[in-house]
Automatic annotation (TrEMBL):
UniProt source species: Candidatus Wolfebacteria bacterium RIFOXYB1_FULL_54_12
Name of the protein: AAA domain-containing protein
Signal peptide: none
Gene3D superfamilies reported in the protein's UniProt record: P-loop containing nucleotide triphosphate hydrolases
All copies of domain AAA, residue ranges: 23-193
Domain of life: Bacteria
Record Pfam families: AAA_31
InterPro entries named among the record's database cross-references: AAA_dom, DNA_Partitioning_ATPase, P-loop_NTPase
Length: 343
């Protein structure tokens, strides 16, 4: 039903002008070894499989995401360090992966030095944001694989992000780390980030179905965490820990493993959070007013729509004869799945 209404809109106005605007997601937990990198590498792969155009920025001097995607660090090669300081443009730093719609900007050991170099430069908290702003409209998702620390690098990552995904290891000390993390997010939210930082959700990682402690911790987090907790839990899976040594995401290593299926499910949960894409119709495409037709105006709501259907329902009631000052907002159809592999 929604589709036919949207098609009618297309026939009224012609094909819409679409523009990507990436969800920029920092995958962060200040605790080390909780599966930040594993989540970045594999979630990105499954989003690419779903037809999304994805960029993974390895923002950790350890460069595990880079090597996990088959790009071991080379000191003489461009990395996010060069992007951070305006020494290279994004295109020069972007590396392909085996998916044509999944790109990587690698890290390097230089990034460890950036901590000191950043201290005395103006707008030091906004360097990554300024870099990402240049390429936001080229991707559907930009992931930032964050380092396990609280530093100027971390602040750059959180300021650049719209959203944060928090991997939480099913481990006794996880809860303690979480309250500190929420304080950090609140601080960035209040003091630095203009548009705020949304918590997309916490995801339980290395979950052991047979271990009562895993269930207890998951239950505690579901009960006390003030934000979304993803329904998908990532199980402990040998395939997930092996895949990086082959320089590939798990989908190309063992796609039938429990770990692979869990990240596939998590990607779908993340996609389900998407709000309808909005774009402005170029003003010359708005049909001129026809005085013979009844002047009925359905006001556009100011707040965002709950679903694409809601938006389509309202739009179809807007008669094209009313020339508004602001071009109407039109909802785009689901993108065509256009994933392909390089072989
Ligand atoms: N679900 C899983 N099952 C088994 N091993 C896993 C799983 N998730 C991650 N691992 C392994 O746990 C280790 C830590 O994972 P990862 O490097 O993704 O964590 P991290 O949070 O990025 O670490 P750091 O804080 O050092 O950046 C790695 O060896 C990884 O292969
Ligand atoms: Mg990591």
């Amino acid at each position: 039903m929604a589709k036919s209404r949207i098609s009618r809109l297309y026939s009224l106005y012609g094909m819409p002008y679409t523009k990507r605007m990436a969800r920029v997601i920092a995958v962060y937990n200040q605790k080390g070894g909780v599966a930040k990198t594993t989540t970045c590498v594999n979630l990105s792969a499954y989003l690419a499989l779903e037809g999304k155009k994805v960029l993974l920025i390895d923002f950790d001097p350890q460069a595990n995401a880079s090597s996990g995607l088959g790009h071991p660090t080379k000191l003489n090669e461009g990395s996010i360090y060069h992007g951070l300081f305006g020494l290279a443009e994004p295109d020069a730093l972007t590396k392909p992966t085996i998916f044509y719609n999944y790109h990587l900007i690698p890290s390097s050991q230089h990034l460890a030095g950036a901590l000191i170099e950043l201290v005395n430069i103006p707008e030091r908290e906004y360097k990554l944001k300024q870099f990402i702003d240049k390429i936001r409209d080229k991707y559907d998702y930009i992931f930032i694989d964050m380092p396990p620390s609280l530093s100027l690098l971390t602040i750059n990552g959180l300021v650049a992000a719209d959203e944060i995904v928090i991997p939480v290891q099913s481990h006794y000390f996880s809860m303690e780390g979480l309250s500190q993390l929420l304080e950090i997010i609140e601080l960035v939210h209040k003091n630095i980030s203009a548009q705020g930082l949304k918590v997309s959700g916490a995801v339980m990682t290395m979950f052991d179905e047979n271990e009562p402690l895993s269930h207890k911790i998951a239950g505690d987090i579901a009960a006390s965490f003030p934000h979304n907790v993803f329904k998908t839990r990532i199980p402990r899976s040998a395939a997930l820990s092996e895949a990086p040594s082959y320089g590939r995401p798990v989908i190309l290593h063992d796609p039938n493993s429990t770990g692979a299926r869990a990240y596939e499910q998590l990607a779908k949960e993340l996609i389900a959070q998407e709000t309808p894409k909005q774009f402005q119709m170029p003003s010359q495409m708005i049909p001129a007013a026809d005085p013979r037709q009844e002047q009925v105006v359905t006001p556009l709501p100011n707040e965002s729509f709950d679903s694409a259907q809601d938006m389509a329902d309202i739009l179809i009631d807007i008669k094209p004869q009313v020339q508004s000052e602001q071009p109407p907002v039109v909802v785009a159809e689901e993108p065509v799945r256009d994933t392909a592999f390089y072989f």
